[in-house]
Amino acid sequence: xxxxPLNYTGGKFKLLPQLLPLFPNNIHTFVDLFCGGCNxxxxxxxxxxxxxxxxxxxxxxxxxxxxxxxxxTLETVYNIIEKYGLSLxxxxxxxxxxxxxxxxxxxxxxxxxLKLRNDFNFNTSEDYYYxxxxxxxIVYSFNNQIRFNxxxxxxxxxxxxxxxxxxxxxxxDFIDTxxxxxxxFSCLDFNDFNTSQLTENDFVYIDPPYLITCATYNEQDGWxxxxxxxxxxxxxxxxxxxxxxxxxxxLRSKGKKNSILIEWLEKNQDKxxxxxxxxxxxxxxxxxxxxxxxxxxxxxxxx
Length: 303
Ligand SMILES: C[S@@+](CC[C@H](N)C(=O)[O-])C[C@H]1O[C@@H](n2cnc3c(N)ncnc32)[C@H](O)[C@@H]1O
What we know:
Rossmann fold, 2 domains, 9 helices, binds S-adenosylmethionine
């Protein structure tokens, strides 16, 4: 199984063994409508893949990884690390940086990372180099997250880790697979996605932000009840057009319940099947203390 090179919040990597067997066979076009880290689409066999998300930076980054030569991308990653003087423990070890594994590399990398972040935020040519800078920045950022402020500036502080062997392997595997796929990237609100191009052999996987949990992509113009209702109408439209789809979500989490979704399911019992999944902590925030807190994670299918 290929893991996204981005440590993406809400990523479904750990749930894949439960999700993939529930997907249809022989998919012509697989639409990853809220692709995020691409953990799902990258592991689905289909003749064609469409990756969609409202975060344009992600899509340009994937486009760069797909279309730039793999070795050139890796060379550029190492050039950027060297240019900014960022740490590379896999080569030099912790002692070289006067740091250790438990406190991490943040102290050493802070100023260097901020210079990279500043250069990225004030760069005007959005080319392959620019998106490779974005990748390096994510690797060295806090918890490897992606967050932009309302002015469109990347605003995460430095993290504890650097570009290690595991990250390099994940990057290589992802690049090799995305290059083999016949894939397209689109940056649309799900509601503007043109479903008239789809047929009965296609499959839409829908993994929106969850209404009752929070994530960085829920900040600013975040997910809300209105969007949730529009999404459910969008799914009803796919269903009446006989296009197969599956929705990931949680019905309950940490004492909250998603009443909109639960009521919609009750009203449409004949149309949708609810598959209960074993919670994977996939959506746990790093500072969630109580990992035992129950969450009812489901996949809802229209087939
Ligand atoms: C739960 S994440 C998807 C994770 C992904 N399935 C994975 O495994 O890596 C939800 C994604 O929805 C995107 N998103 C939020 N609002 C959206 C909208 N209105 N239309 C399309 N994508 C949206 C966010 O940017 C985020 O990447």
